Predict the structure.
Amino acid sequence: MTGNLNLSLHHSLEPQRDHVEICRQMVGETFAWDMSRALELALLRTFCVPRISAILRQTGEFVHRPQKRYDDTGLILGNILKWGYDSPEGQRAIARMNRIHSHYPIENEDFLYVLSASCYEPIRWNCQYGWRLFTETERQSLFYFWRAVGDRMGIQDLPESDEAFAAFKQDYEDRHFAYSSDNAEVGNGVIRLMQHWLPAGLGWLVPIVVYALLDAPMRQALGWSNPLPGLEWTLRQYFRGRRWLIATGVLPRRSGFFVDRPTRSYPQGYDMENLGPVPDAEVQPVASASRCPFMRMRSFLKPHTSAS
């Protein structure tokens, strides 16, 4: 019933004008669990580019402090998603993100790619595993939302249309996806992090399932093996059953925002100005000053009643 209510609300909303509110509903209410999984895979997708993963490996965050790195990014981007990029909370989060990024040498094209992964990996996930398909309004809202965030980050050459942005993403991957040891080390760091989220004795399931959820170009770039025979089919059947259970109301949909509950790294709460690898004065630039590309989110937050 809630899903039908969301659909009816969208009839009165327009993507270019109302994308902040539409995305807030998608991330915090309608597709909270699905968006979480999709954005975790978007994170892995950025590791398939050697010049991105090289910087991430040199920072040491995903090797030595993966949970903190995960939580810091989730809190920063979660504030942007929950409150909107032009809200006081969103502006503080973007300012903090830009300050962290300023220590690292990242090309504008790489920023665009990370932005595109955040936009289109949720769409790919939704097509394959979502409990219902995105409406065209929801899909277009993702484009307008992430394009606006990119504009406020100072990213140049932002595509003017959804079609152009999707084409850029595919062309970038064709040109830059390639295996490197940096890809593998950073990607394996995330796998180890996910293993720690499960009860003792179940961590071995993480790589088996993750490998089956990735496409072949990602597995090749990360140096990971093909999934076990039949596992991809089994997962499709599982998500097909989940889709039916949610659509009929038998299985409740998870809702809520990541920023509204304690994280593993900050059980007593967090200060936006303290999020990031280390205090700014201690950061040693990897090369020339610029910005870091990692824009992952884990969003998943508790709904808020006011407009973003």
